[in-house]
Design brief:
heterodimer; A: 79 residues; mainly alpha; three-stranded antiparallel sheet; 3 strands; globular; B: 346 residues; alpha+beta; Rossmann fold; D-amino Acid Aminotransferase, Chain A, domain 1; 3 domains; six-stranded antiparallel sheet; five-stranded mixed sheet; 12 helices
Chain lengths: 79, 346
């Protein structure tokens, strides 16, 4: 199971992993990506959502989402 | 009825004992409790915290044997009353465990592990206990000289932790660091000194209590967010780690653990590595009390043979913030303790 589902996150971008005690601060884009991951969206759909919400083209958004997903893997929040 | 409870480990230095937070927990209780500090050192802060302890007594060292200690306990019982003792220091636990039945015959109650339970969680036997619990345990070797230390380093490989049998642990990244730690620890705490493999993962801790029949009375799991140079918690947060909590309940169930305990573990995903089991309350026990799980209060009920209340579940995300504080007293407070070995009231 993806641990990201359990990640507690507030509106200001503070996230807390209740299983390890780790906490993170997130910007608006990161919050958007994590919320989408919680809804089990795939990376392409998340990137598409970002193009609708922020001024960014799909290629750039997809690259950023991939990089962020790698970061989440290092924190073992997704596999 | 007033219950007189004596509590040891009332030092409150940068390596604090559990005694003051245990007393604070009992003061939070609705029960009518008078707290008595048991100390081995005139300078223990608890001796001067009149808001925490109704009286304080200096005991002879446990290394001097039981006779001196029991004489002092009888004196306390006769002068102000004594119903329950909560020993909070590792070094005195073997004596209290050995004499717990004798104490009960004098209407002084404890709630401690059995001698067998105490022995099974010692550092020499912990690997076997971990295996029985289906948990991991880091490679560990006890060494008594530099030659054995070198052999242990060859086998376990650097980096390692160099640990005292009772207290203190330091990471060593080079052979010379390991020798330095070995010498320092051996001089302070004696032999054997333990050399332990470094395990990756989150360092997580659990405080809990078993009823002696395989049931968990209460549990709280935490992550230490910041620590002192001695590795003592300074800030912490409660966590809900299913693998860790399951391991703690399994420990209580399989061992029929009786009394308080602290598990020190390293957790990576579902893999729980058991590092240490302390057979007493940790110094951060008030963290549990503060979020509604008053384990010292429950210990009193169990010690006195009363039905206990199962602790509620706890929420993740509660913070523990330790801070320093100063107490101003008069020199007569010290002299009272120094001359008579006891101090009463404010």
């Amino acid at each position: 199971m993806q641990k990201i589902k359990d990640l507690a996150m507030n509106d200001t971008g503070f996230a807390f992993d209740p299983t390890t005690g780790a906490s993170f601060t997130l910007n608006e884009v990161a919050m958007e990506i994590i919320n989408s991951l919680k809804e089990q969206d795939d990376l392409q759909l998340i990137s598409l959502k970002l193009t609708e919400k922020f001024e960014v083209d799909f290629e750039q958004a997809y690259q950023d989402v991939q990089e962020f997903a790698e970061q989440l893997k290092t924190y073992k929040l997704i596999s | 009825m007033t219950i007189h409870v004596a509590i040891s480990g009332i030092n409150a230095s940068d390596n604090p004992g559990p005694g003051v937070p245990v007393a604070r927990s009992l003061l939070d209780s609705k029960a009518d409790i008078k707290t008595i500090g048991l100390s081995y050192d005139l300078h223990d802060a608890g001796n001067y915290l009149s808001s925490m302890f109704d009286a304080s007594f200096i005991l002879p060292y446990p290394s001097g044997g039981w006779d001196g200690i029991i004489a002092k306990l009888r004196h306390i019982k006769q002068t102000i009353g004594l119903d329950v003792i909560i020993p909070c220091l590792d070094a005195e636990l073997p004596l209290y465990i050995k004499y717990q039945e004798a104490l009960a015959k004098e209407d002084i109650y404890t709630f401690l592990p059995t001698a067998g339970q105490f022995k099974d969680r010692t550092k020499e036997n912990l690997a076997q206990l971990a295996e029985n619990l289906d948990l991991h345990h880091p490679k560990t070797q006890g060494v008594i000289n530099i030659e054995q230390l070198q052999q242990a380093l060859d086998e376990i490989k650097l980096p390692v932790y160099v640990k005292g049998n009772y207290y203190e642990a330091y990471p060593a990244y080079t052979k010379y660091e390991a020798i330095g730690h070995f010498t320092k620890i051996a001089n302070k705490w004696g032999y054997p000194v333990l050399v332990q493999e470094v395990v990756s993962g989150e360092e997580l801790n659990v405080v809990g209590m078993g009823d002696g029949k395989g049931n968990t009375v209460g549990l709280v799991a935490i992550k230490k967010l910041t620590t002192t140079s001695l590795g003592k918690i300074w800030n912490g947060v409660t966590i809900q780690n299913p693998a860790l909590l399951a391991a703690a309940k399994q420990f209580v169930k399989l061992s029929n653990w009786r009394g308080p305990f602290e598990l020190e573990c390293i957790v990576e995903d579902e893999r729980v590595t058991l590092i240490e089991i302390n057979p007493r309350f940790p110094a951060w026990v008030y963290f549990a009390t503060g979020i509604g799980i008053n384990l010292p209060e429950q210990l009193i009920e169990l010690a006195m043979g009363r039905p206990y209340t199962q602790a509620p579940d706890f929420a993740a995300g509660k913070l523990f913030i330790r801070h320093t504080s100063e107490q101003i007293c008069d020199i007569t407070d010290l002299s009272q303790l120094a001359c008579s070995g006891e101090r009463h009231g404010s």
